[in-house]
Amino acid sequence: MTSLDILAIALLAFFATGYFVLAGADIGTGMLTPYLGRTDHERRLVITSFAPFFLGNEVWLIATAGVLVGCFPDLEGELLSGQFAVLVPLLTGWIVRDIGLWSRGRGPGPRWRALCDGAVVCGSWTVAPAWGWLLAGLLTGTPYEAATGPTAILTALAVAALFAAHGLGFATLRLTGLPYERARLLVGRTGSWQSFALTAVLLGALPALAGSTLPLTEHAADGATLALLVPALLVLTPLLVAAQVWTWRTFRHRVTRPSYL
């Protein structure tokens, strides 16, 4: 194993972990929107709590896919073909969710907003267990075929529950009024930051554990390709982190009124 192999694996793990921790917050909050927001105004508050973050969070997934395609092309092809049945609902849920978020404030009235809210919730509830289904195959040592049976079902449900818990902790940090009170009720005596930090650690551990089962070294690209891609990624990574820090710092205050969504 060369130093470039190690750096490529580290970058893949870093981006995947970043996605699960950051995007897990907005996916989880989207899953809980019907509980947190009982009225149109409250639902707008809930969506406003994560609206500034979701696009930036998705960049981490794109970066993960980019590292996988560029630095581990053979493995990427085998994974995509083997996990095709999982990727279809995952990508479908992702698209439906984003359409709901983008379209909510651009429709004619409350029925349109309710339809978009439904798309956000359904998309979120599709994406979260789909990730669990994918992880079930990786964690059980069958990365080249979709997991089946009770293990796949239980893993999908457990991961979905973890996403929801992460979103709940995020909601207690961002919301105010009745939506905050509802989130705080489920968090219980655990502090908001403690709850969010705990679920962040658990979600961050999932891609690391799954990645440890993959033959990454054996499927790494040739030295010339890594010599070109890895330094470029090392230059771009601090920029991505800086942009993410700026976004979270800018929108660090609690939501008190709805946005254009």
Index terms:
single chain; 261 residues; 79% helix
Would you mind describing this structure in some detail?
It is a single chain. The chain is mostly helical and 261 residues long. The protein has one domain (3-250). 79% of the residues lie in helices and 0% in strands. The protein is built from 11 helices and no strands. It has helices at residues 3-31, 33-36, 40-50, 54-71, 73-82, 84-103, 110-139, 149-174, 177-187, 192-211, 223-250. Helix 1 packs antiparallel against helix 3 (40-50). The chain is globular. The model has no long low-confidence stretch (mean pLDDT 92).
Report the order of strands and helices. HHHHHHHHHHH
The helix content, as a percent range, equals over 70%
Total domains: 1
Average pLDDT value?
92
Distance between the termini: 49 Å
Number of strands: 0
Short structural summary:
Helix content is about 80%, strand content about 0%. It has about 260 residues and is mainly alpha-helical.
Question: Which helices and strands appear, and what pairs or packs with what?
Answer:
Blueprint: H1 3-31, H2 33-36, H3 40-50, H4 54-71, H5 73-82, H6 84-103, H7 110-139, H8 149-174, H9 177-187, H10 192-211, H11 223-250
Helix pairs in contact: 1-3, 1-4, 1-7, 1-8, 1-10, 1-11, 4-5, 4-11, 6-7, 7-8, 8-9, 8-10
